Each structure stands twice: as structure tokens, then as C-alpha cells.
From TrEMBL:
GO terms for molecular function: mRNA 3'-UTR AU-rich region binding; NADPH binding; quinone reductase (NADPH) activity; zinc ion binding. CDD domains: QOR2. Residues 11-322 form the Enoyl reductase (ER) domain. PROSITE patterns: QOR_ZETA_CRYSTAL. SMART domains: PKS_ER (SM00829). InterPro entries: ADH-like_C, ADH-like_N, ER, GroES-like_sf, NAD(P)-bd_dom_sf, QOR-like, Quin_OxRdtase/zeta-crystal_CS. Pfam families: ADH_N (PF08240), ADH_zinc_N (PF00107). This is Quinone oxidoreductase. Keywords: NADP, Oxidoreductase. It comes from the Bacteria. The keyword Cytoplasm does not apply.
């Protein structure tokens, strides 16, 4: 039996229940991992709420770190006793142990602690593809990054600074402004207190930015379009404030022949060589000290509902993890 967090109907955090469930032996190409730390991400709340439908009953969670407890036939990449992590799903990480496909597992190098890994795999690999492949940044660029004091945002701030990029970050409070600045943000805007578009235009001599990295969604979407220079790219990868409502494509023309993309980590790591290269890039910047991983909140696994409440109320800073 293993402790697991599940939901039998979609809704708010209260639909999460704690259950003891049997755990089977791994089959061909499968691995049983005993979790030591589990990451909490906004996508977990989308699965729980039904915004991103999953089969019911469901178990949230896309990333975790742990130790290989057993392997099935044909497993060649990992061995019993090895430290591993994953960040691309499938869902089901909110459990003390689980069976996972070998294909998603990445051996953890020395110098990367289990809690660090659980706090960075999904977020850090997302940052990697956003800034290195979706819209590859270059030294001297100025970019707009929303939710700069969140778990993903703090990783992005440090990595972008390392690459010589000027970062205009948005946050929700004065406390978060200081945290974002301390992690590499060049300028920080609080949209609830300032005119975001005017501030960005002022900081870019009226030109606007070439790219917006947006994990917030509805609340800042239209203002973000107005922050872009002609032929700029809007990269919307999250819905923390709700999904972006439908709009006519001609709006992109009217605002400067803009580009819009809605990328997903799974599409950037679909092939094993892509997954390994993405993780290797992340491991390198963490091991070198370019990027430090901020864990702002730790909750027992059984208190996953409290973790979701904290995340959705914007009360968190940095990454949130669950401890089995």
C-alpha cells in the first residue's frame, strides 16, 4: 500500500482526498520509484479543476524525485537504488511511490539534491525550451516576463541574466518585487499598481519588447500584446489567472503583425534525445551556480489541498514541494 492523493470529481482543492492504494510490480519498460520529494505546479490545479481534463479518479502531479525501488523487464537506463527525477508526466506524482515509464526518468547527477530536483524539473525544463528554443534570446535583448517571483520565474530571471538579457518582470506585491530583483530582474512592475504598457514602453524607448513570456493568462494577455514591438512574439504557456478568451486573429495584425504561440513542455521533449538535452542544459546551469532553486514552501503530501490553496491565492514565492 502507498499513500496517494486523488480526486474523484473535479473542483476546488477540497476534492483532493488522501488514500492508501495498492502498488503493483513494474511491467515491461516500467520502474517503481519511491518518491522523496514531489513538485507542485499550476498545471496540477488545472487537472484538479477540470480545465485540463484527465480520466477520473485522477492523481495530480507531473514531477518528482526519488529512488528506483524496482524495475520491470527491458529496463536499461536506470537501476535499483539509483536517484532519479522526472518532470514531464504522466500525471500521478502525488503519491509516496508509483509506477512510471522508464522513458520519462532522468538520473540525477551529483550536486543536485532530491528536493532541488522536485522543485525544478518541470519549471526548469520549461524555462529551457522557452528561452532557448521557442524564442531564443540573445545578449542585449529586453524581454517581458510575467510572474517573475514564482518558481518558474525565479529560474528564468537567473538564466536570462546569465545570458545577458534585460528582464522586465511583473509581480503581485512589493515583497515579490524585491525577490525578483534579487534573482536577476532588471526592472519590476506591479500591474495592479502601475500601467504595465506605459512602463514597458518607457523602459524600451517606446519600441516595446521582442517577446513576452506569459504564464498568467487572461489577466495580462491583452496588455502584453500592447507591450510587443512590431512582429514580436507572445509566448503564452500558462493560465494562472484563467484561460485567455477567444479573439479574432486580425487583432494580431492590428497590433503589429504579432506572432502567438501556446507551447507545451511535452512537445519539446517528445523524443528521448530532446528530453536528455533539455535536462542536461538545466543540470549544468544549476551545478555551476548560475541558477539557484528557491523552495519557498514545503507541505506534507497529505496536505496537498493546502498547497493548492496557497498556490492559487498567490501566497507562494518560488517553488512548492510536497514531502511524502
Amino acid at each position: 500500500m502507498t499513500l496517494s492523493v486523488r480526486f474523484h470529481a473535479t473542483g476546488g482543492p477540497d476534492v483532493l482526498t488522501v488514500e492508501d492504494l495498492p502498488l503493483a510490480d513494474p511491467g515491461p519498460g516500467e520502474v517503481r520509484v519511491r518518491h522523496t520529494a514531489i513538485g507542485v505546479n499550476y498545471i496540477d490545479t488545472y487537472h484538479r479543476s477540470g480545465l485540463y481534463p484527465v480520466p477520473l479518479p485522477g492523481c495530480p502531479g507531473m514531477e518528482a524525485a526519488g529512488v528506483v525501488e524496482a524495475v520491470g523487464p527491458d529496463v536499461t537506463r536506470v537501476a535499483v537504488g539509483q536517484r532519479v527525477a522526472y518532470g514531464t508526466g504522466p500525471t500521478g506524482a502525488y503519491a509516496a511511490a508509483r509506477i512510471v515509464p522508464e522513458a520519462i526518468l532522468l538520473p540525477l547527477p551529483e550536486g543536485i539534491a532530491d528536493e532541488q530536483a522536485a522543485a525544478m524539473m518541470l519549471r526548469g525544463m520549461t524555462v529551457q525550451y522557452l528561452i532557448r528554443r521557442t524564442f531564443p534570446v540573445a545578449p542585449g535583448m529586453t524581454v517581458l516576463l510575467h510572474a517573475a517571483a514564482g518558481g518558474l520565474g525565479l529560474i528564468a530571471c537567473q538564466w536570462l541574466r546569465h545570458l545577458g538579457v534585460t528582464i522586465i518582470g511583473t509581480v503581485g506585491s512589493e515583497k515579490k518585487r524585491e525577490i525578483a530583483l534579487a534573482h536577476g530582474c532588471t526592472h519590476v512592475v506591479i500591474p495592479s499598481q502601475e500601467d504595465l504598457v506605459a512602463r514597458v514602453r518607457d523602459l524600451t524607448d517606446g519600441k516595446g519588447v521582442p517577446v513576452v513570456y506569459d504564464g498568467v493568462g487572461a489577466a495580462l494577455f491583452e496588455a502584453s500584446l500592447d507591450c510587443l514591438r512590431p512582429r514580436g512574439m507572445m509566448v503564452t504557456f500558462g493560465n494562472a489567472s484563467g484561460p485567455v478568451p477567444p479573439f479574432p486573429p486580425t487583432l494580431l495584425t492590428q497590433k503589429g503583425s504579432l506572432f502567438l504561440t501556446r507551447p507545451s513542455l511535452n512537445h519539446y521533449t517528445a523524443e528521448r534525445d530532446e528530453l536528455e538535452a533539455t535536462a542536461a542544459d538545466l543540470f549544468e546551469v544549476v551545478q555551476k551556480g548560475v541558477v539557484s532553486i528557491t523552495i519557498g514552501q514545503r507541505f506534507p503530501l497529505a496536505e496537498a489541498a493546502a498547497a493548492h490553496r496557497a498556490l492559487e491565492s498567490r501566497a507562494t514565492v518560488g517553488s512548492t514541494i510536497l514531502l511524502p
